[in-house]
Design brief:
With about 170 residues, this protein is α+β, with helices and mostly antiparallel strands. Helices cover about 35% and strands about 30% of the residues. It is built from 1 helix and 8 strands, in the order αββββββββ.
Length: about 170
Amino acid sequence: MQNHAYASRQFALSLASFLAAIILTIGTLFGVSSAANAQQTTASSEKIWEDLKGDVFGDRAILVDTGDVRIEATKRAQDAAIVPVDIYVDPAKAPDGIKSVTLIIDANPAPVAATFQIGKDAGVTHLSTRVRVNDYSYLRAIAETQGGQLHMAQTFVKASGGCSAPAVKNQD
């Protein structure tokens, strides 16, 4: 009787080990797939940006991560239909002032989400909005100084389906 119980326990342990190995293998495969998909999506977003920036800004040079402008958004959106975005401009780094800030969401059907015109003496240092994000994408804030220079900051957001969401959302 004890040998039968021992054999049953050994079989159960072997079966559990086998199932755990299968689950770990499948999880690893999906993890690699997700990482590869994120890299592919990042590359796709970069390709979209390369095509788009000429349409929006012509052949003007865009300075990246100079500190004149900063963008913050959640890394993974809980609700892709209302993703909070904060844009900060540093008046000390742009002494001639910021004329406008353009918000671009690479993977959206209409990528130019907003252009904020800022008066020369307005003193605006922070803009806050909520946007729809259609797919994993870079959000880019491009600030134009009064002198015509373009400064860009960007952040990557993992979201999907925001542009197919219903038009009415509770924003509280």
